[in-house]
């Protein structure tokens, strides 16, 4: 009888220990973006607090911020995902944070993004499909399909954006594609 009670107590203690260990871990959350100080971890451009911003939260809690989904992809290709706790993207319509794996993505070479990777994210597949109607040659992707996407930047679009920025340089400030001056070195990151 004592043995059965001891085994029962040990089992209960083990179950309680496992439950408490799980309670101490919090899921990674996206960090707030401050355009006055936040720079893309890849291209070093200003990260605006808008629907193009993406983040990687590392296992140690450090937040890496990106101005374009393509920059986040480039970082992941160069560094892998072993230290990544979570990747976040924003819904194109609402700018709400989403887990990378939960979003639906649209690519078309005519979609303007800060670094001309031309990929945007949506919380709802139906919204992505509706957006895609504007781009008949575009493609719809789930997160696990983005690995096969050709992440080449649209250099023609980059050239046009640079020309436009040069023409408007007197009225812009900062260091972002979405409202600031960009040097040739920044254009070719």
UniProtKB/TrEMBL annotation:
Residues 169-189 are annotated as: Disordered. PROSITE patterns: PROKAR_LIPOPROTEIN. The keyword NADP does not apply. Pfam families: NosL. Residues 1-27 form the signal peptide. Keywords: Lipoprotein, Signal. The keyword RNA-binding does not apply. Residues 172-182 have a biased composition (Gly residues). This is Lipoprotein. It comes from Kyrpidia tusciae (strain DSM 2912 / NBRC 15312 / T2).
